[in-house]
Amino acid sequence: MAAVTSPETSPQPRVYFQTPAEEPETPVRKQGRVTVKYDRKELRKRLNLEEWIIDQLTDLYDCEEEAIPELEIDVDELLDMPSDVERAARVKDLLVDCFKPTEDFISELLDKIRGMQKLSTPQKK
Q1: CA-CA distances (angstroms) from residue 27 to 23, 30, 34, 86, 123?
Q2: Total domain count for the chain?
Q3: pLDDT of residue 28
């Protein structure tokens, strides 16, 4: 038979557990939310273009991706330019340190971006 003891007469100290403070719940985002704001096909085109650019730059500079000189070919900036002549001049300026011929790369790049849409940040509703 178990003896009933009161907290004052108990020989062992009692242990109390605190419940953890409740953390504020962060809203869970559903996957694919970005593709709701942007066109999925345009995102795929842009990703393919960026991978192609990296491959071409590694060939042009004869190095691994990590060793490519710090340069950024901003596709949206190129799309904002009014003509292919200006786009070609901009890319040529970016590739000034490249010792290999860049004309083929530039013409292919311009062909690939022709008809692409600028990926601007959508306005919040």
Answers
A1: 12, 10, 16, 45, 20
A2: 1
A3: 57
